[in-house]
Design a protein that fits this description.
Layout lengths: L2 E6 L2 E6 L6 H8 L18 E4 L2 E4 L12 E3 L12 H8 L9 H14 L5 H7 L10 H14 L16 E4 L5
Parallel strand pairs: 1-5, 2-6
Antiparallel strand pairs: 1-2, 3-4, 3-5
Helix pairs in contact: 2-5
Bound molecules: FE2/S2 (inorganic) cluster (FES) (2 copies).
Pfam families: Fer2, Fer2_2
GO molecular function: 2 iron, 2 sulfur cluster binding; metal ion binding; oxidoreductase activity
Pathway: Alkaloid degradation; nicotine degradation
């Protein structure tokens, strides 16, 4: 069974995984990162979106072994010291969710979008989120939230949201599915 070491939300984890284990399974079932969710079995919904080395990936489309040696950030790694990330606050304040199932993936994808284009127009937001599906809110509030977050995240608008670099480690040699 392959052994992988992955930095997830600022903490290093070493685990044995099955070669077929998906990254989303590893995050949820071995690390307990259940904020990342599975909304489909066709890689269409985007609910499972996380960042790998700073770029969004659908974690149902990545094998856990492919994350070996990489940095993964989930929606659970965004808040700092009890303070929500500006993107999370913007989703809350703009009522950009109802059931919330799509929200972790939407937030992670929206952050990737703003990293590439800090001042998108509405059309660019919609294009950037086209791989993420929401079945209940309607997309207008989500677009509003991303635009709001873009303002909140402008340089000088608040404290920088750096990745936490905690140094905890965990070795889990008996892991498996
Ligand atoms: Fe990954 Fe739907 S669960 S795209
Ligand atoms: Fe329910 Fe988007 S808020 S799926």
């Amino acid at each position: 069974m392959p052994r992988i070491t992955v930095n997830v939300d600022g903490s290093s984890y070493t685990d044995d995984v099955q070669p077929r284990t998906l990254l989303v399974q590893y995050l949820r079932e071995q690390l307990g990162k259940v904020g990342t969710v599975v909304g489909c079995d066709t890689s269409n919904c985007g609910a499972c979106t996380v960042h790998m080395d700073g770029h969004s990936v659908k974690s149902c489309s990545v094998l856990a072994v492919q994350a070996d040696g990489h940095d993964v950030t989930t929606v659970e790694g965004l808040a700092r010291d009890g303070q929500l990330h500006p993107m999370q606050e913007a989703f809350h304040d703009n009522h950009a969710l109802q059931c919330g199932f799509c929200t972790p993936g939407m937030i992670m994808q929206a952050l990737d979008l703003l990293a590439d284009n800090p001042e998108p127009d509405d059309e660019q937001v919609r294009e950037g989120l086209e791989g993420n599906l929401c079945r209940c809110t309607g997309y207008q509030n989500i677009v509003n939230a991303v635009q709001d977050a873009a303002q909140r995240m402008q340089p000088g608008a608040g404290p920088p949201m750096e990745q936490a670099q905690e140094t905890s480690t965990r070795t889990h040699v008996a892991g498996g599915q």
